[in-house]
Amino acid sequence: METTVTLKVAKREAKGRHVRRLRREGWVPATVYGAGAEATSVQIPRNEAAEVYRRVGTSTMIGVLMERQRQPRPAFIREAQRDPITLQILHMDLQLVDPNRPITLDVPIVLVGESPAARQSLGVLTHGVETVEVHCLPGEVPARFEVDLSVLTDVDQFLHVKDLVVPAGVQIRTDPEVVIAYVAAMRREEVEEVAKPEEAVEEGVEAAEAKEEAEEE
User: Fold this and answer.
1) Residue 1 falls inside a structural domain
2) Residue 76 is assigned to a structural domain of this protein
3) CB neighbours (10 Å) of residue 52?
């Protein structure tokens, strides 16, 4: 099965505390496993690992090409651990897959458009889940699910997992009633906070008028 992105990996000897030196030299340690293959420790050039992860994330099938192999094997990036400060990738898990056997993984939800209700300050847009679990053949995994917020035109409107447009052959494992996004009514405190600037202006005008009247007297 053809893939649009290929990630070249090399067998890794460094383990334990020696992995730090590997990272300083510009490599990302990784583990390749799955599809009946024995788990293998590998290393990937940091720039290449970061670029591939930026392009495909964890829900797009890639090809993993190991040393001395002629053809890349289909796989998914199952996890990319990042440094919380520098955001550099510290480790990758690459799962090889059988193109003919269904897999289960999480697919991200991408919110697009704008809610008219939120834009008009009728309510506050609140987000729910950011991913949904799908079950399908590796080649049929959607890269993302786009959700149009423009349908949220009033307060207390909801978008659920069951509202997603799902391609044929893809099964959603997440509860269909789980909320993706909704417009919540503003609390009284929030309404008052929005009104404060205008109230402050009015109070300032009234104070100025009172001062002028006192001076005229």
Assistant:
1) no
2) yes
3) 21
